[in-house]
Write a structure and sequence with these properties.
- The structure is a single chain.
- The protein is an all-alpha fold.
- It contains 5 helices and no strands.
- The longest helix has 64 residues.
- 29% of the residues are buried.
Length: 207
């Protein structure tokens, strides 16, 4: 019996040893998963906050230019009022902010490499960018990416999608592309939206 116990003891120990690392790995992988989910949630929170802030700024610019223009934005969602226009701008701000985090993740490395290359060749650019990157690298990068993103959104939305929708669905004839003062103001408004989005997004994630 003693021999039997002695022989089974090492077997039990050898069976326990392979199980022990897996039991240790399970909590580790769980922690990594939780941390990943928390980071993703933080990115989403940053995008939503930036989208709301950017939507406010874009709506303000559009209303200051033409109050009827903000009502037309609301009309796209079936609420052709001032309040409807503002709510629509907030909704669009959040809607366009969510893909921004994907855009940042996919393009930030290439953007930083390009900035470093340009700054190494241009002394003036280096004097401006290096202190900014040292002080707040992520926010500086997302601010620049946000400005570019906002311009693209503004061109697509203000010059093409909105006039197409108003012409086809609302029966309001508009030039396509809408290269008018109103259309260009829309592009500027969404460019400012992108800059604000990138600034708030970077600040929340960095600090």
């Amino acid at each position: 019996m003693a021999d039997s116990n002695a022989s089974t003891g090492p077997d039990a120990g050898s069976n326990a040893d392979p199980d022990e690392p897996s039991s240790r790995l399970a909590p580790a992988s769980l922690i990594e998963t939780i941390e990943s989910l928390e980071f993703d949630a933080r990115e989403t929170e940053a995008a939503v906050a930036g989208g709301l802030a950017g939507g406010f700024q874009a709506a303000l610019v559009i209303q200051l230019y033409d109050t009827d223009a903000i009502r037309r934005v609301g009309a796209i969602f079936g609420v052709p009022t001032l309040n409807g226009g503002w709510l629509a701008m907030f909704a669009l701000g959040v809607l366009f902010a969510l893909p921004f985090s994907v855009f940042v993740s996919s393009s930030i490395d290439a953007f930083v490499s390009t900035v470093m290359l340009l700054s190494s060749r241009n002394r003036l650019l280096r004097k401006v960018l290096v202190p900014l990157l040292k002080r707040s690298a992520l926010t500086t990068t997302t601010l620049a990416l946000g400005n570019g993103y906002g311009v693209v959104v503004g061109v697509i939305l203000s010059l093409f999608l909105v006039p197409v929708w108003l012409t086809v669905a609302m029966g309001v004839p508009m030039a396509i592309p809408n290269v008018t003062v109103g259309g260009l103001v829309g592009v500027v408004a969404w460019a400012l939206y992108g800059g604000t989005l990138g600034l708030v997004y970077g600040l929340i994630l960095e600090y």
